[in-house]
Write a structure and sequence with these properties.
This protein has 271 residues and is mainly α. Helices cover 52% and strands 6% of the residues. The protein has twelve helices and five strands. Helix 2 crosses helix 8. The protein is globular. The termini are far apart.
Length: 271
Protein backbone atom coordinates (compact mmCIF):
# COMPACT_ATOMS: atom_id res chain seq x y z
CA UNK A 1 0.00 0.00 0.00
CA UNK A 2 2.84 2.37 0.81
CA UNK A 3 4.41 1.72 -2.61
CA UNK A 4 1.11 2.45 -4.38
CA UNK A 5 0.66 5.65 -2.40
CA UNK A 6 4.19 6.76 -3.24
CA UNK A 7 3.65 6.08 -6.95
CA UNK A 8 0.45 8.10 -6.91
CA UNK A 9 2.29 10.93 -5.19
CA UNK A 10 5.05 10.88 -7.83
CA UNK A 11 2.52 10.90 -10.67
CA UNK A 12 0.71 13.82 -9.08
CA UNK A 13 3.92 15.82 -8.77
CA UNK A 14 4.98 14.94 -12.30
CA UNK A 15 1.73 16.14 -13.81
CA UNK A 16 2.00 19.55 -12.17
CA UNK A 17 4.71 21.59 -13.85
CA UNK A 18 4.58 25.12 -12.51
CA UNK A 19 5.88 28.45 -13.71
CA UNK A 20 8.39 30.26 -11.51
CA UNK A 21 8.40 33.99 -10.79
CA UNK A 22 10.70 34.42 -13.79
CA UNK A 23 8.10 32.97 -16.17
CA UNK A 24 10.12 29.79 -16.64
CA UNK A 25 8.35 26.44 -16.68
CA UNK A 26 9.77 24.20 -13.97
CA UNK A 27 9.68 20.45 -13.46
CA UNK A 28 10.77 18.47 -10.43
CA UNK A 29 12.00 15.62 -12.64
CA UNK A 30 13.37 16.93 -15.95
CA UNK A 31 15.78 19.84 -15.60
CA UNK A 32 16.72 22.53 -18.09
CA UNK A 33 20.09 20.78 -18.47
CA UNK A 34 18.16 17.65 -19.48
CA UNK A 35 16.28 19.67 -22.12
CA UNK A 36 19.65 20.80 -23.43
CA UNK A 37 21.10 17.28 -23.51
CA UNK A 38 18.06 15.76 -25.18
CA UNK A 39 17.93 18.55 -27.76
CA UNK A 40 21.59 18.04 -28.58
CA UNK A 41 21.07 14.30 -28.99
CA UNK A 42 18.13 14.87 -31.35
CA UNK A 43 20.10 17.50 -33.29
CA UNK A 44 22.97 15.04 -33.78
CA UNK A 45 20.53 12.36 -34.96
CA UNK A 46 18.90 14.73 -37.45
CA UNK A 47 22.14 16.06 -38.85
CA UNK A 48 23.67 12.59 -39.18
CA UNK A 49 20.82 11.55 -41.47
CA UNK A 50 21.04 13.79 -44.58
CA UNK A 51 18.88 11.49 -46.69
CA UNK A 52 15.96 12.05 -44.30
CA UNK A 53 16.86 15.62 -43.34
CA UNK A 54 18.78 17.30 -46.21
CA UNK A 55 19.99 20.44 -44.44
CA UNK A 56 20.79 23.35 -46.72
CA UNK A 57 24.50 24.19 -46.79
CA UNK A 58 25.22 27.43 -44.99
CA UNK A 59 28.46 27.93 -46.93
CA UNK A 60 26.53 27.85 -50.21
CA UNK A 61 23.59 29.96 -49.01
CA UNK A 62 25.01 32.42 -46.46
CA UNK A 63 22.49 35.18 -47.26
CA UNK A 64 19.56 32.80 -46.73
CA UNK A 65 20.89 31.85 -43.31
CA UNK A 66 21.64 35.44 -42.41
CA UNK A 67 18.01 36.34 -43.11
CA UNK A 68 16.43 33.55 -41.07
CA UNK A 69 18.91 33.94 -38.23
CA UNK A 70 18.19 37.66 -38.01
CA UNK A 71 14.50 36.81 -37.75
CA UNK A 72 15.14 34.19 -35.06
CA UNK A 73 17.38 36.53 -33.07
CA UNK A 74 14.75 39.28 -33.18
CA UNK A 75 12.14 36.93 -31.72
CA UNK A 76 14.47 35.43 -29.11
CA UNK A 77 15.54 38.90 -27.98
CA UNK A 78 11.99 40.26 -27.83
CA UNK A 79 12.12 40.34 -24.03
CA UNK A 80 9.47 37.65 -23.65
CA UNK A 81 11.38 34.37 -24.18
CA UNK A 82 11.98 32.90 -20.73
CA UNK A 83 14.86 30.59 -21.71
CA UNK A 84 16.58 33.09 -24.00
CA UNK A 85 19.95 32.55 -22.32
CA UNK A 86 19.52 28.85 -21.51
CA UNK A 87 18.75 27.19 -24.83
CA UNK A 88 20.82 26.96 -28.02
CA UNK A 89 18.35 28.68 -30.41
CA UNK A 90 20.11 27.36 -33.51
CA UNK A 91 18.13 27.49 -36.77
CA UNK A 92 18.69 25.27 -39.82
CA UNK A 93 16.89 25.06 -43.17
CA UNK A 94 15.86 21.64 -44.49
CA UNK A 95 15.81 21.50 -48.30
CA UNK A 96 12.49 19.84 -49.06
CA UNK A 97 9.96 21.78 -51.13
CA UNK A 98 7.31 19.09 -50.67
CA UNK A 99 7.11 19.42 -46.89
CA UNK A 100 5.09 22.19 -45.26
CA UNK A 101 6.65 22.03 -41.83
CA UNK A 102 8.87 23.46 -39.11
CA UNK A 103 9.74 22.14 -35.67
CA UNK A 104 11.82 22.96 -32.61
CA UNK A 105 13.47 20.37 -30.37
CA UNK A 106 13.82 20.67 -26.61
CA UNK A 107 16.73 22.99 -25.93
CA UNK A 108 15.98 25.24 -28.91
CA UNK A 109 17.21 23.59 -32.13
CA UNK A 110 14.89 24.96 -34.84
CA UNK A 111 14.37 23.41 -38.29
CA UNK A 112 12.37 25.00 -41.11
CA UNK A 113 11.56 23.30 -44.42
CA UNK A 114 11.96 25.16 -47.71
CA UNK A 115 8.44 24.00 -48.60
CA UNK A 116 7.02 26.08 -45.76
CA UNK A 117 9.17 29.12 -46.51
CA UNK A 118 8.11 29.12 -50.17
CA UNK A 119 4.44 28.60 -49.27
CA UNK A 120 4.23 31.63 -46.99
CA UNK A 121 3.71 35.14 -48.35
CA UNK A 122 5.55 37.41 -45.96
CA UNK A 123 8.12 37.77 -43.20
CA UNK A 124 5.27 38.27 -40.73
CA UNK A 125 3.82 34.86 -41.65
CA UNK A 126 7.11 33.06 -41.09
CA UNK A 127 7.81 35.00 -37.89
CA UNK A 128 4.41 33.91 -36.57
CA UNK A 129 5.24 30.26 -37.25
CA UNK A 130 8.72 30.65 -35.78
CA UNK A 131 7.25 32.21 -32.65
CA UNK A 132 4.87 29.26 -32.34
CA UNK A 133 7.71 26.74 -32.61
CA UNK A 134 9.96 28.66 -30.22
CA UNK A 135 7.09 28.63 -27.73
CA UNK A 136 6.90 24.82 -27.83
CA UNK A 137 10.52 24.72 -26.60
CA UNK A 138 10.34 27.75 -24.31
CA UNK A 139 7.16 26.50 -22.62
CA UNK A 140 8.69 22.99 -22.57
CA UNK A 141 5.72 21.37 -24.33
CA UNK A 142 7.88 18.78 -26.09
CA UNK A 143 9.37 17.64 -22.81
CA UNK A 144 5.96 17.33 -21.19
CA UNK A 145 4.60 15.30 -24.09
CA UNK A 146 7.69 13.08 -24.31
CA UNK A 147 7.58 12.49 -20.55
CA UNK A 148 4.06 11.14 -20.93
CA UNK A 149 4.99 8.94 -23.88
CA UNK A 150 8.41 7.57 -22.89
CA UNK A 151 8.66 8.04 -19.16
CA UNK A 152 11.25 9.96 -17.20
CA UNK A 153 13.95 7.28 -16.90
CA UNK A 154 14.04 6.42 -20.60
CA UNK A 155 13.99 10.07 -21.62
CA UNK A 156 16.91 10.81 -19.30
CA UNK A 157 18.89 7.88 -20.69
CA UNK A 158 18.30 9.23 -24.22
CA UNK A 159 19.47 12.68 -23.14
CA UNK A 160 22.64 11.11 -21.79
CA UNK A 161 23.23 9.25 -25.04
CA UNK A 162 22.48 5.84 -23.55
CA UNK A 163 19.49 4.90 -25.75
CA UNK A 164 20.49 5.71 -29.30
CA UNK A 165 17.81 3.45 -30.76
CA UNK A 166 15.09 5.72 -29.38
CA UNK A 167 16.69 9.00 -30.43
CA UNK A 168 15.84 8.51 -34.11
CA UNK A 169 12.22 7.83 -33.19
CA UNK A 170 11.99 11.03 -31.14
CA UNK A 171 13.64 13.01 -33.95
CA UNK A 172 11.06 11.63 -36.36
CA UNK A 173 8.20 12.56 -34.08
CA UNK A 174 9.42 16.12 -33.59
CA UNK A 175 9.91 16.49 -37.34
CA UNK A 176 6.49 15.10 -38.18
CA UNK A 177 7.94 11.96 -39.76
CA UNK A 178 6.12 8.72 -38.99
CA UNK A 179 4.26 8.92 -35.69
CA UNK A 180 3.64 12.60 -34.98
CA UNK A 181 4.26 14.06 -31.55
CA UNK A 182 0.77 15.48 -31.03
CA UNK A 183 0.57 18.37 -28.62
CA UNK A 184 -2.49 18.88 -26.46
CA UNK A 185 -5.13 21.48 -27.25
CA UNK A 186 -3.82 23.55 -24.35
CA UNK A 187 -0.23 23.40 -25.60
CA UNK A 188 -1.22 24.49 -29.11
CA UNK A 189 -3.30 27.35 -27.75
CA UNK A 190 -0.46 28.45 -25.48
CA UNK A 191 2.05 28.30 -28.36
CA UNK A 192 -0.28 30.52 -30.43
CA UNK A 193 -0.60 32.94 -27.52
CA UNK A 194 3.13 33.14 -26.91
CA UNK A 195 3.83 33.65 -30.60
CA UNK A 196 1.80 36.86 -30.27
CA UNK A 197 3.63 37.82 -27.07
CA UNK A 198 7.06 37.22 -28.60
CA UNK A 199 6.30 39.13 -31.78
CA UNK A 200 4.85 42.03 -29.78
CA UNK A 201 8.42 42.91 -28.86
CA UNK A 202 9.57 42.96 -32.50
CA UNK A 203 8.80 44.87 -35.70
CA UNK A 204 6.84 41.92 -37.10
CA UNK A 205 3.04 41.91 -37.11
CA UNK A 206 2.27 40.23 -33.78
CA UNK A 207 -0.58 38.19 -35.30
CA UNK A 208 1.62 36.68 -38.01
CA UNK A 209 0.54 33.14 -37.09
CA UNK A 210 -3.08 34.10 -37.86
CA UNK A 211 -2.30 35.14 -41.42
CA UNK A 212 -0.81 31.69 -42.03
CA UNK A 213 -4.07 30.04 -40.96
CA UNK A 214 -6.05 32.51 -43.06
CA UNK A 215 -4.05 31.44 -46.11
CA UNK A 216 -4.76 27.78 -45.38
CA UNK A 217 -8.47 28.48 -44.97
CA UNK A 218 -8.66 30.61 -48.12
CA UNK A 219 -7.04 27.85 -50.15
CA UNK A 220 -9.19 25.14 -48.61
CA UNK A 221 -6.25 23.38 -46.99
CA UNK A 222 -7.36 23.61 -43.37
CA UNK A 223 -8.00 19.88 -43.25
CA UNK A 224 -4.42 19.29 -44.32
CA UNK A 225 -2.82 21.62 -41.80
CA UNK A 226 0.76 20.44 -41.17
CA UNK A 227 1.64 18.64 -37.97
CA UNK A 228 3.50 21.61 -36.51
CA UNK A 229 0.25 23.61 -36.48
CA UNK A 230 -2.20 20.95 -35.35
CA UNK A 231 -5.84 21.32 -36.32
CA UNK A 232 -6.96 21.26 -32.70
CA UNK A 233 -8.30 23.84 -32.06
CA UNK A 234 -9.59 24.35 -35.59
CA UNK A 235 -7.79 26.89 -37.82
CA UNK A 236 -10.71 29.32 -37.95
CA UNK A 237 -10.93 29.39 -34.15
CA UNK A 238 -7.19 29.90 -33.92
CA UNK A 239 -7.31 32.90 -36.24
CA UNK A 240 -9.96 34.41 -33.98
CA UNK A 241 -8.05 33.69 -30.78
CA UNK A 242 -4.70 34.92 -32.12
CA UNK A 243 -6.27 38.20 -33.25
CA UNK A 244 -8.11 38.47 -29.93
CA UNK A 245 -4.80 38.06 -28.08
CA UNK A 246 -3.23 40.76 -30.25
CA UNK A 247 -6.06 43.09 -29.27
CA UNK A 248 -5.80 42.19 -25.60
CA UNK A 249 -2.13 43.11 -25.32
CA UNK A 250 -2.56 45.93 -27.86
CA UNK A 251 0.39 44.99 -30.08
CA UNK A 252 0.93 46.12 -33.65
CA UNK A 253 -0.56 44.04 -36.47
CA UNK A 254 1.04 46.23 -39.12
CA UNK A 255 3.27 44.36 -41.56
CA UNK A 256 6.98 44.83 -41.10
CA UNK A 257 8.73 47.27 -43.42
CA UNK A 258 11.86 45.32 -44.28
CA UNK A 259 15.23 46.93 -44.95
CA UNK A 260 17.92 44.94 -46.71
CA UNK A 261 16.84 41.55 -48.00
CA UNK A 262 13.07 41.23 -48.37
CA UNK A 263 11.06 38.06 -47.82
CA UNK A 264 10.56 37.72 -51.59
CA UNK A 265 14.32 37.91 -52.07
CA UNK A 266 14.84 35.39 -49.25
CA UNK A 267 12.55 32.89 -50.99
CA UNK A 268 14.28 33.51 -54.30
CA UNK A 269 17.67 32.88 -52.68
CA UNK A 270 16.71 29.29 -51.87
CA UNK A 271 17.36 26.43 -54.31
Amino acid sequence: MKKIALNLFVVTILSSCVGSSTGKVSSLFFTVADDQKLGLQVQEEIESNPSEYPILSESKYPKSYEYIRDMTDNIINSGNVAYKDDFAWVVKIIQDDNTLNAFCTPGGYIYVYTGLIKYLNSADDLAGVMGHEIAHADRRHSIKQLEKQYGISLLLSIALGESASQTAQIAGQLAGKGTILAFSRGAETEADEYSVRYLSGTSYACNGAATFFEKLLKEGKAGGTPAFMSTHPSPDNRVEEINKMAGTINCSTKSIQESGMTYAQFKASLP
